[in-house]
Design a protein that fits this description.
Layout: H1 10-15, E1 20-22, H2 25-40, H3 48-70, H4 74-81, H5 83-93, H6 125-152, H7 157-182, H8 188-211, E2 214-216, H9 221-238, H10 250-254, H11 274-303, H12 316-338, H13 340-367, H14 377-388, H15 399-432, H16 450-457
Parallel strand pairs: 1-2
Protein name: Choline/ethanolaminephosphotransferase
Subcellular location: Membrane
InterPro entries: CDP-OH_P_trans (IPR000462), CDP-OH_PTrfase_TM_dom (IPR043130), CDP_ALCOHOL_P_TRANSF_CS (IPR048254), CHOPT (IPR014472)
C-alpha cells in the first residue's frame, strides 16, 4: 500500500471535490429525467461503486458474446478480403455500384490479400440488439453512480478513480464491439478506431487535470458518442444482412445510384463504404475535440497566469503509447492482424496499458501530484514494436511465438493494472474511511489520520 499515493499526498484526498460541467442538450432534457428516476430505484445501502461495476459487467457480457461467436473478428475480415463474399454481398443487396475502400487491399496489409478463409461464423442480429441495450444501461448506471454517492454521503476521490477506471476499460471493449458491428474486422480501421476512442478519453482526463473540471461538450463521448454507438448496434440488428450492411457504399445506401441522371455516374468511383465513411467522421471529430480541450486548458491556465504551452507536453504519453502500439501491429508483415485471437488479445493489452496510464493521471489529479509522464505500460509496447520491426524478429519469429509474446504482454499488463487498482483502492479506503463496496454512516468516515493532520496545521 502507498506505492502510487505516497503519505505526503494523502491530505489532498480530503480536500478533493468533484467539479463537472455538462453542456449536452440531450443530457439536460432527455436523459436527466430518466437518470433521476433510475437512481431513486436503488436502496441507500447500495454502494455507488457497486453500481459502476455493475455497468461494466454488462459491457463485459457483451464482450464475452463477441469472443464466443466471433472471437477473431473473422466475419468482417472475410467480408472485405474474400472476393466471393464481396460478390455475394453485392448481389444480395441489389446495389448497382460496388463499394469503394479508401485504402488499398480494403484497409488490410498487403500480406493479407491472399488470406484464405474456412467457414466463417458471423454474429446473429439478436447479439447486436443485446449490445445496444447493454451499452445504454452501462451509460445509465455510469451516470447515476455519482448521484448515489451524494445520496449516501459516499462521494469522494475513490468514486472518481473507480468511475474513470471502468470508463477506460469500457472504451477499449466498445472499440472492438463497434468494429465488429461495422464489419471492419482486423483492418487498419480497427486500429484507427482504437486510437481515436482512447485519445478522446485521454484528452478529457488531461483537460480535467489542468482545469480541475470535467467538461462534457454539447457533443461528448459519454453522452452523444455512446448513444450513437447504441444506434449503430441497433441498426446492425434490424437491417437485412446485419453487419454486411456497413460494407455497402454511401451512394448506394442513400439511393443516389438509382437516380437516372447520367451526370451522377462519376460518383460510382466515390461510393465509399459506409463503415469507412463513419470512421472517417470520427477521426475528424477527434481533431475538433483536441482543439476544444486545449481551448479550455488554455483559458484555465491563462486565468492563473500559468504557461499555456507547457500542458501540451502532457499529450506525449498518449502519443508515445499510440505510436508504439500501432508500430507493433504493423510490424512483422502484419502478423498481429492475420491471427484473430492474437489481435483481440493485443487490443486488450493496449486497453489495459491505457487504463493504467489514465489511472496514474487521475491519481495525480485527486492528489495534486505532478503530471505522470512515464509509465511502464508503454515499455511493453516498445519492446514488441522494436522486435516486430527487426529484420529477423527475436521474440516474434513465428506465428506461435507472436501468440506467446502477445499473451505474455497481456498477462503483465493485467498484473500491473490489478496491482495499481488494489493499491489505490486500499490506500484511499484506509485514509478516508469509506469502503469501496459498502455504504457506511458519515460518523464512521472520519479519516484515520485526521487528528495528526490537524495538529500539523496548528
Amino acid at each position: 500500500m502507498g506505492h502510487y499515493i505516497p503519505k505526503r499526498r494523502l491530505p489532498a484526498l480530503h480536500a478533493y471535490k468533484y467539479s463537472g460541467q455538462d453542456d449536452s442538450w440531450i443530457s439536460a432534457n432527455l436523459l436527466s429525467p430518466w437518470w433521476n428516476w433510475l437512481v431513486q430505484q436503488f436502496p441507500l445501502w447500495v454502494a455507488p461503486n457497486t453500481i459502476t461495476l455493475s455497468g461494466l459487467a454488462l459491457v463485459g457480457i457483451n464482450f464475452a458474446s463477441l469472443l464466443i461467436i466471433d472471437g477473431g473478428m473473422d466475419c468482417g475480415t472475410s467480408a472485405s478480403l474474400d472476393p466471393r463474399r464481396r460478390t455475394e454481398n453485392l448481389n444480395a443487396s441489389g446495389d448497382k455500384w460496388a463499394s469503394v475502400s479508401l485504402f488499398e487491399h480494403w484497409g488490410f496489409p498487403e500480406s493479407m490479400k491472399e488470406h484464405t478463409f474456412s467457414q466463417v461464423r458471423c454474429i446473429p442480429p439478436w447479439v447486436f440488439l443485446s449490445w445496444s441495450i447493454g451499452l445504454f444501461l452501462y451509460q445509465s448506471l455510469d451516470a447515476i453512480d455519482g448521484k448515489q454517492a451524494r445520496r449516501t454521503g459516499m462521494a469522494g476521490p475513490l468514486g472518481e478513480m473507480f468511475d474513470h477506471g471502468c470508463d477506460a476499460i469500457n472504451t477499449t471493449l466498445e472499440s472492438l464491439l463497434c468494429c465488429a458491428a461495422l464489419n471492419v474486422g482486423r483492418s487498419y480501421w480497427a486500429l484507427a478506431s482504437v486510437v481515436a476512442t482512447l485519445s478522446n478519453f485521454y484528452l478529457t482526463t488531461w483537460e480535467e487535470y489542468h482545469t480541475g473540471t470535467l467538461y462534457l461538450s454539447a457533443f461528448s463521448g459519454p453522452v452523444e458518442g455512446i448513444l450513437m454507438i447504441c444506434v449503430i448496434y441497433l441498426i446492425t440488428a434490424i437491417v437485412p444482412g446485419g453487419a454486411n450492411f456497413w460494407n455497402r457504399g454511401i451512394f448506394s445506401l442513400s439511393g443516389i445510384e438509382s437516380l437516372d441522371v447520367p451526370a451522377l455516374a462519376h460518383l460510382a468511383a466515390w461510393n465509399i463504404k459506409a463503415n469507412e465513411a463513419f470512421l472517417s467522421f470520427g477521426a475528424t471529430a477527434l481533431g475538433f475535440n483536441i482543439l476544444a480541450s486545449y481551448g479550455n486548458v488554455r483559458k484555465a491556465r491563462a486565468a492563473k497566469g500559468l504557461s499555456t504551452v507547457t500542458p501540451l507536453t502532457g499529450l506525449l504519453p498518449l502519443l508515445a503509447q499510440n505510436v508504439v502500439m500501432v508500430a507493433w501491429a504493423l510490424g512483422n508483415h502484419g502478423q498481429l492482424l492475420k491471427d484473430g485471437s492474437v489481435f483481440v488479445a493485443f487490443i486488450s493489452t493496449w486497453g489495459l496499458g491505457f487504463a493504467y496510464s489514465v489511472g496514474l493521471l487521475i491519481v495525480a489529479h485527486v492528489t495534486k501530484a505532478p503530471f505522470p509522464y512515464w509509465n511502464i505500460a508503454t515499455l511493453f509496447g516498445l519492446v514488441g514494436a522494436v522486435d516486430a520491426w527487426l529484420p529477423t524478429p527475436i521474440l516474434q519469429s513465428s506465428p506461435q511465438r507472436v501468440q506467446v509474446t502477445v499473451l505474455s504482454s497481456l498477462g503483465l499488463a493485467a498484473a500491473f493494472y490489478l496491482h495499481f487498482c488494489y493499491d489505490v483502492i486500499t490506500t484511499i479506503t484506509v485514509e478516508t474511511g469509506k469502503p469501496c463496496f459498502q455504504v457506511v454512516p458519515p460518523e464512521q468516515q472520519k479519516p484515520k489520520n485526521e487528528g495528526k493532520e490537524l495538529s500539523k496545521k496548528q
